[in-house]
Amino acid sequence: MDVPCVRVAPEAGEATRSTLADADLIDDEYEIAVDDGWLYIPVADPDAASSLLEDGEIVSRTVAERESQTMPADLLAFDPTYERLGEAALIDEDDPDRARAIADAILESDLPVETVLNKASKVKGETRVRDWELLAGNNTEVVHREYGCEFLLDLAAVYFSPRLATERHRVTEQVDAGERAFDMFAGVGPFVIPFAKRGAECLGVDINADAIDYLRENARRNGVADRVTAINDDVRTVAAEYEGWADRLVMNLPHSADEFLASAVSLAGEDCTLHYYDIQHEDDPFGPGERAIRAAAEPEYEVTVETRHTVRSYAPHELNVCLDVRLER
Question: What is the C-alpha to C-alpha distance for residues 221 and 193, in angstroms, rounded to an integer?
Answer without folding.
Answer: 10
